[in-house]
Amino acid sequence: MALEHAILVSLLERPGSGYELARRFERSIGRFWTATHQQIYRVLKRMEVDGWVVAEEIGQDRRPDKRSFSVADSGRRALVEWLRAPVQPEAVRHELAVKIRGAAFTDEAGRAALISEVERYRADHETLLYTYVNGEKRDFLDRESEDVGQRLQHVVLRGGIAYERMLLDWLDDVLATLRAL
User: Fold this and answer.
1) What keywords tag this UniProt record (predicted)?
2) Which residues of 137-150 are buried (b: 16+ CB within 10 A; e: fewer)?
3) Which SS3 state, helix, strand or coil, does residue 65 take?
C-alpha cells in the first residue's frame, strides 16, 4: 500500500488540512500505516499535482490561511482501482523476535536485559490495547446505528484489539520461556 491510498481513505472520510491529516494518522490510521508530517505534506503536494486531490484556501482570523484537501474524481478512481487489486501477505519484520532468537547466544545478563525489554514492550502494547478498547467504548456505543463507514472503521479497530490481545498472549509466553532458561 502506498501512503497515497491511506490519505485518500482519510480524506474521503473527512476532508482536511495537512495538519489535520497528520493528527488523524497519529490517533488512528498510524497504527496501521505510519507517516511523518513531512511525508504527508510531500505526498499531498504530489497528489495535488497529479489531480488526485484538490485544495481549498480557507481564511482564518489572526492566523495564516490553511489549505483543506478533498478527493478529486481521479483520486477516487485511483482508490477504487487499488481496492480491486489483490493483496499479498506482508513480509513481517519484527526486531524483537530476532532479539528473542538471539538470546540463545548471550549470557544470563543479556537474557535479563532482554526480559526487561520484553516487559517494557509488553507494557506499551498493554497501554495500546487499553486505548483501543476505550476508543471502541467511546466511539462505537450503538452498533445498530453505525453507517457503512463506521462499521468498517469498527471492524478495523476490532482487528487491532484482537491483534494486541494475541501479541500480549505471545509476549507472556516469551517471558515465561525466557524466565525458565
Assistant:
1) DNA-binding
2) eeebeeeeeeeeee
3) strand
Looking at the structure, do residues 55 and 106 belong to the same domain, yes or no? Answer: no
Q: Give domain status of residue 129, yes or no.
A: yes
Distances (CA, A) of 129 to 16, 67, 134, 152, 160: 28, 34, 8, 19, 8
Q: How far is 96 from 106, CA to CA, in rounded Å?
A: 15
Kindly state the cell numbers that stand for 47.
Answer: 497528489
With H, G, I as helix, E, B as strand and everything else as coil, classify residue 176.
Answer: helix
Grid cell digits, residue 93: 519484520
For residue 64, what are the domain limits?
3-84
- Taking the C-alpha atoms of residue 42 and residue 45, their distance in angstroms, rounded to an integer, is 5
C-alpha cell at 143: 452498533
90 lies in a domain? no
- The pTM of this model reads 0.80
Dump pLDDT digits (tens) for 103-162.
Answer: 999 999 999 999 999 999 999 999 999 999 998 998 888 878 888 988 998 999 999 999
Q: How many domains, the chain?
A: 2
If you ran DSSP here, which 8-state letter would residue 16 be given? B
Q: For residue 56, what is the enclosing H or E element? A: strand 53-60
